[in-house]
């Protein structure tokens, strides 16, 4: 680029009276008329150069190679389980990575990498872009293993991925999140996994999981938490589905067909919890400790079978809640609870026990059934239920009342309890304010 070098004078009309200001040590080029030329091609090439610097560049001088390492590594993973295991191992060793899986690939595991884990334990920040791939245990595999284990300090972010068929003898059939581990799932399908607890996902005490736009379907737990089991972690579940999961057996009972929480915290928003089954209590949700908030969700068509028969406190087709393991509070906001059943127990929609604290706000319990009492809400001894601008209607039970049974304390603010056969609230040990039979 040439630029003027002499001083412009009035006798030299072909040059400007003043030179353009020099920026960054480079003089701008002028057109033949003296106008400033904007070097668009040069600017574009600088942008391209800046983009290219993100990639790894190898410069060889003699026998010395200098490698410029990118700030965040990115690795394409070929369609084989060996390549995926190698990629996770390298990511752990290098402090993290983003792994792009082969589009539509089936990563079909026939054996565990270590112990009961198909893949190496995640111990660093790893992002998996699934591209519609499936990571699964081969149905012909002979040994038992889960698909993912997130260890202390590990952070797994994953999306666009199916996790299928895990079956360890321990907990967490699809994903186990250990204490100090973090799961961030967005757009996953977690299906057909089996474990003792947490058929789909197990959150150990001290773990954290944020699960969004994810389907957790058709998983099985031998004891608790067919879809998700949370004995003391922190769960945020948004815009997701917990469907057709199963917990427990007739011999040992079990709780939380969809979700089980023994302690820790749970925040569930805009989620469908439907078609889940528990052998004993809490067909949709079994909540035994820690705060739980459910908002703008649907809890529908879940079943608590109440077996083995003769055990105390069965029921809660939609939700069983009570301070069984630790102090708890349950807050339900703007949620529909419908079509749930406690086939051999109390509280088709909700059973609140063991001095539990329940707040039902702007929510509806409708068309739930109980084999014994309270198709809608069963509020046990010393438990408290606050009904705020909610509706409990068209619920039914084998023994009256069909709407609300109260052996503790119920408060009612502008809530309707109507049309529940055989009766709305009587007989109950304690009155239910605002209930007309």
From TrEMBL:
Residues 1-12 have a biased composition (Polar residues). Residues 1-30 are annotated as: Disordered. InterPro entries: Pectin_lyas_fold (IPR012334), Pectin_lyase_fold/virulence (IPR011050). This is CSLREA domain-containing protein.
């Amino acid at each position: 680029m040439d630029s003027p070098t002499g001083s412009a004078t009035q006798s030299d009309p072909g040059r400007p009276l003043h030179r353009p200001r020099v920026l960054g040590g480079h003089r701008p080029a002028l057109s033949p008329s003296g106008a400033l030329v904007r070097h668009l091609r040069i600017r574009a090439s600088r942008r391209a150069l800046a983009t290219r610097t993100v990639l790894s560049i190898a410069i060889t001088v003699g026998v010395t190679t200098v490698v410029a390492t990118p700030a965040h590594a990115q690795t394409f993973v070929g369609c084989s389980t060996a390549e995926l295991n190698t990629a996770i191992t390298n990511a752990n060793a290098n402090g993290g990575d983003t792994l792009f899986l082969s589009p539509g690939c089936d990563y079909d595991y026939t054996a565990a990498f270590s112990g009961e884990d198909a893949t190496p334990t995640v111990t660093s920040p790893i992002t998996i872009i699934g591209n519609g791939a499936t990571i699964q245990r081969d149905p012909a595999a002979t040994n038992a293993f889960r698909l993912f284990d997130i260890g202390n300090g590990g952070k797994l972010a994953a999306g666009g991925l199916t996790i299928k068929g895990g079956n360890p003898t321990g907990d967490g059939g699809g994903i186990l999140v250990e204490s100090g581990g973090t799961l961030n799932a967005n757009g996953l399908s977690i299906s057909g996994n089996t474990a003792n607890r947490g058929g789909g996902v197990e959150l150990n005490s001290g773990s954290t999981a944020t699960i969004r736009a994810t389907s957790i379907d058709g998983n099985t737990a031998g004891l608790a938490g067919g879809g998700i089991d949370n004995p003391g972690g922190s769960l945020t579940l948004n815009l997701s589905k917990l469907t057709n999961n199963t917990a427990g057996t007739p011999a040992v009972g079990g709780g939380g067909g969809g979700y089980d929480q023994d302690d820790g915290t749970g925040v569930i928003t805009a989620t469908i919890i439907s078609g889940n089954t528990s052998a004993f209590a809490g067909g949709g949700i079994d909540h035994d400790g820690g705060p739980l908030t459910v908002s703008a969700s649907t809890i529908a068509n879940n079943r608590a079978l109440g077996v083995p028969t003769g055990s105390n406190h069965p029921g809660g087709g939609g939700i069983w809640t009570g301070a069984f393991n630790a102090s708890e509070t349950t807050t339900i906001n703007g949620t529909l609870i419908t079509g749930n059943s406690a086939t051999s127990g109390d509280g088709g929609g909700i059973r609140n026990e063991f001095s539990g604290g329940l707040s039902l706000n702007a929510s509806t319990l409708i068309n739930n059934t109980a084999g014994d009492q309270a198709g809608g809400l069963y509020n046990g001894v010393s438990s408290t239920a606050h009904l705020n601008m909610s509706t409990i209607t068209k619920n039914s039970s084998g023994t009256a009342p069909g709407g609300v049974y109260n052996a503790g304390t119920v408060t009612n603010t502008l809530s309707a309890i109507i049309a529940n056969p055989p009766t709305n609230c009587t007989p109950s040990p304690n009155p239910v304010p605002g209930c007309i039979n």
